[in-house]
Amino acid sequence: MGGNGWHQTGPYLPDLAAAFRRAQDEELARDDHGFTGLTIDQLWRDEDWHEYVFTGGTGTVLDQVRLVDPTHPGDGPSMRPLTPAEITPWCPTGRPTLAEWLDAMHTDALPWPDRAAGHCVILHRGGAPDAVGYWGITAD
User: Does pLDDT of 1 surpass 60?
Assistant: First the structure.
C-alpha cells in the first residue's frame, strides 16, 4: 500500500504551533474517529491511536503529532512549515493566497512530504495572513 495525499486549511494565529494545535482541535471536534473524549495529547499517548494512524490515518492534521522547524528533515509524524525557498518557486511574492496554494497543489508545484508527514504554509488575503494551508501523505 502507499500513502494517500490530503489537504485542508485551518485558522491563522501568529504562533504557527498554536495555529496547528487549533486546527487539530477543530478537526477532532468534527470527527473523533471513534476515540471519543480524548484530547490530541491523549490520542498520541494511546497505542490504539498509533495503530489507527499508521495503518490508514485520518487524512487530516490529526495524523501529525507536532509542528517542527522548517529545517527539520521531514520525517513523520510531524508537520513542517515550508521554507521561503520552497514557497517562491510557485509564489514569487512569498505571500501565497488560497487560490495560489490550491493551484500549486493541483499542478504539483508544491513539495510533497514523505509518507506519515505533512507540510504547511501561511495563506494571505489582501496581503495579510488569513489562514494556514496543510497537506500531507498518510502513513499507510
Answer: no
